[in-house]
Amino acid sequence: MIRPRGGPALPACVAALRQVHEADGYPAVWPRDPIRFLTPSRTHGAWVAESAAGITAHGALCGADDVAPAAGELAAAVGVPEDRLLVIARLFVVPAARRTGTGRALLTHLVAEARAANAHPVLDVVAGSTPAVTLYESAGWRRITTLKATWTDATGANPALHYYVAPA
Ligand SMILES: CC(C)(COP(=O)(O)OP(=O)(O)OC[C@H]1O[C@@H](n2cnc3c(N)ncnc32)[C@H](O)[C@@H]1OP(=O)(O)O)[C@@H](O)C(=O)NCCC(=O)NCCS
């Protein structure tokens, strides 16, 4: 079941994020304030997938500041002003719930929420994140550019980030 996250679910979402960080290194560096990480600037909304076991997945929609280095190029690619972009961010599925369609279902839900807000969905992803890159490309997302991240990962490197726009 996919439902709006709501404030009370945030601690459970942080616990789920911790599992993902330990399993996959996402996020690359554990944030000093994980609640703030899950509520990026200009958050439009956030949704979770839930099973009897608890929260299994999380995703948010936020303003284009989250993809600032490529926002102009992404907006030009879809032919809308930057303020009509919504970024799919903080998308993850706990390891125990993987490969059951949860990630794809939540991605589809987030796209529908963005379109309901009359916005065009975009996102960025670490180039080496094969499961996520495969998910987006299998769903028809179009890669627009690849840029070095402005942040550093646990090894001190600036990873390459792929930037995508949703299929029309
Ligand atoms: C990426 C992620 C959200 C996918 O979640 P999921 O629930 O396992 O994905 P689904 O079961 O819906 O799989 C959908 C498709 O994604 C691709 N995919 C998912 N996991 C994959 C893997 N390990 N290797 C290759 N492709 C994979 C496949 O195309 C898959 O379709 P298929 O199962 O029919 O082959 C999950 O692996 C995750 O949370 N990763 C860590 C966090 C992360 O990288 N988030 C993205 C930040 S931009």
Can you tell me about this structure?
This protein is an alpha+beta fold and 168 residues long. The protein has one domain: Gcn5-related N-acetyltransferase (GNAT) (Aminopeptidase). Helices cover 31% and strands 30% of the residues. The structure holds coenzyme A. Residues 20, 24, 26, 91-93, 98-104, 125, 129-132, 134-135, 138 line the site of coenzyme A.
Keyphrases for this structure?
single chain; 168 residues; alpha+beta; Aminopeptidase; 7-stranded mixed beta sheet; 5 helices; 31% helix; binds coenzyme A
Question: What does the secondary structure layout of this molecule look like, with pairings?
Answer:
Elements: E1 2-4, H1 10-24, H2 34-38, E2 43-51, E3 54-62, H3 71-78, E4 85-93, H4 102-116, E5 120-126, H5 130-138, E6 142-148, E7 160-165
Parallel strand pairs: 4-5
Antiparallel strand pairs: 1-2, 2-3, 3-4, 5-7, 6-7
The chain binds coenzyme A.
Fraction of residues in H or I helices: 25-40%
What hetero molecules are in the model? coenzyme A
**Termini gap:** 26 Å
Q: Report the order of strands and helices.
A: EHHEEHEHEHEE
Tell me how many strands there are. Answer: 7
CATH homologous superfamily designation: Gcn5-related N-acetyltransferase (GNAT)
Categorize the overall geometry: globular
| Percent strand | 25-35%
Main sheet specs: 7 strands, mixed
How many whole angstroms does the radius of gyration measure?
A: 15 Å
Highest CATH level, the class: Alpha Beta
Count of helix runs: 5
Mean pLDDT: 97
How would you name the oligomeric state of the polypeptide chains in this document? Answer: single chain
CATH architecture verdict: 3-Layer(aba) Sandwich
- Pairing-aware structural class of the strands and helices? alpha+beta
